[in-house]
Design goal:
Blueprint (H helix, E strand, L loop, with lengths): L7 H7 L7 E5 L4 E5 L48 E4 L27 E7 L13 H19 L4 E8 L11 E7 L4 H17 L3 H12 L3 E4 L3 E4 L10 E5 L11 H22 L5 E6 L17 E5 L15 H4 L2 E3 L3 H9 L6 H7 L1
Parallel strand pairs: 2-12
Antiparallel strand pairs: 1-2, 3-4, 4-6, 5-6, 5-10, 7-8, 8-9, 9-11, 10-11
Helix pairs in contact: 2-5
């Protein structure tokens, strides 16, 4: 018998995703990610991050997000007791910016960009984060998100709700808050997801992420947490180590379309996910997250059935509270690459307790 050619065993059915590199397709972005799970075994001698401070004061008069504090523009915050929304003092988008001049060449194009930017504080206390807040407090955040999406979406095509948590993700203030940017245009990610979801509905007759949620709920291998209305998975095509996708079980296009029970269960599943995140390395887990739903403004009168509401969570930590995943080199110049399989990440998150490590310490 002649020896098998190199790689024949893998091609013959012995492939193991946890051992052998492979590429996975992301239908939502129409691109690919390289999965190289064996790389996580390599020793790390690179940069170590500083864990977030544990001694954040509950109230600080010099913190511009605290109740009663004076912000950079001289405005004094009210003594708020729940959520608090105010215009960003340093907005990236303004409603009355002049339009750029017409381009004299197709390689030098500019377009108008107008909008508004708001900041939303989740809670008056600076030493709290969402996983440590109560369910009614998180539900109030969900309601405030929906109100802003409705208010700004009445005139703007895109309303981007996003939270940068932790200094590692560029957050300069530990106070629990998010930002909401409404724009006169569809940003790149929105345009891309609009196209891919529209194509999927046209070709398959079902919204992409509704079908995907049904598949993941049945397969279970990438499922992290679930309840009657929602599920959280590490997506099959995840790029970041512990990236997750939060999906409703029914077809719903926008945050403001959620029922009371769906909002209650959203608060619950967010709390469960974020507790698991914190418990993973027993640290206030950094991430960037954001909601994607059907465009608004003029799109409210159009058929947007191809859209399915969802939230992306992009956390950078890989091995520990001090070792992160860097998106550089090959990732910037070729395509995204990850160091453990989505199934491994989901299993690890799924197995974590749903009581926050700080509360467990208090009980001891």
């Amino acid at each position: 018998m002649e020896p098998s050619p190199a790689g024949a065993e893998e091609r013959g059915g012995r492939f193991r995703a946890s051992e052998h590199q492979h590429a996975r397709y992301n239908p939502l972005r129409d691109d690919w990610v390289l999965v190289s799970a064996h790389r996580v075994k390599r020793p790390w001698q690179g940069q170590l991050e500083k864990p977030p401070p544990e001694d954040v004061p509950r109230w600080d008069p010099d913190n511009p997000l605290c109740p009663g504090a004076t912000r950079a523009n001289g405005e004094v915050n009210p003594q708020y007791e729940g959520t608090f929304v105010f215009p960003n003092d340093f907005p990236a988008l303004q409603p009355d910016a002049p339009e750029p001049d017409d381009s004299d060449h197709p390689l030098f194009q500019a377009a108008p960009a107008r909008g508004v930017c708001k900041v939303m504080c989740f809670h008056p206390w600076s030493d709290l984060t969402l996983p440590l807040m109560s369910l009614p407090e998180i539900r109030a955040v969900v309601d405030a998100w929906a109100e802003l999406a409705t208010e700004l979406g009445a005139s703007y095509p895109w309303v981007q709700i996003f939270e940068n948590k932790g200094a590692m993700m560029g957050c300069s203030n530990p106070h629990p808050h998010c930002q909401v940017w409404a724009s006169s245009f569809l940003p790149n990610e929105a345009r891309l997801e609009d196209r891919t979801q529209r194509q999927h509905l046209s070709q398959h007759g079902v919204p992409m992420l509704l079908e995907y949620a049904e598949q993941e709920a049945r397969r279970k291998e990438r499922l992290v947490v679930e309840n009657a209305d929602w599920l959280v998975v590490v997506p099959y095509w995840a790029t970041w180590p512990y990236q997750t996708l939060l999906l409703p079980r029914r077809h719903v296009c926008r945050l403001q379309d959620l029922s009371d029970s769906e909002r209650d269960n959203l608060a619950s599943i967010m709390q469960r996910l974020l507790i698991k995140y914190d418990n993973l390395f027993e640290v206030s887990f950094p991430y960037s997250m954001g909601w994607h739903g059907a465009p608004t403004g003029p799109y409210l009168e159009e058929d947007c059935r191809h859209w399915q509401l969802h939230a992306h969570y992009y956390p950078p930590l890989l091995r520990s509270a001090t070792v992160r995943k860097f998106m550089v080199g090959y990732e910037m110049l070729a395509q995204a690459q990850r160091d453990l399989t989505p199934e491994q990440a989901a299993e690890r998150l799924r197995s974590l307790p749903e009581v926050h490590y700080k509360k467990r310490a208090e009980e001891v």
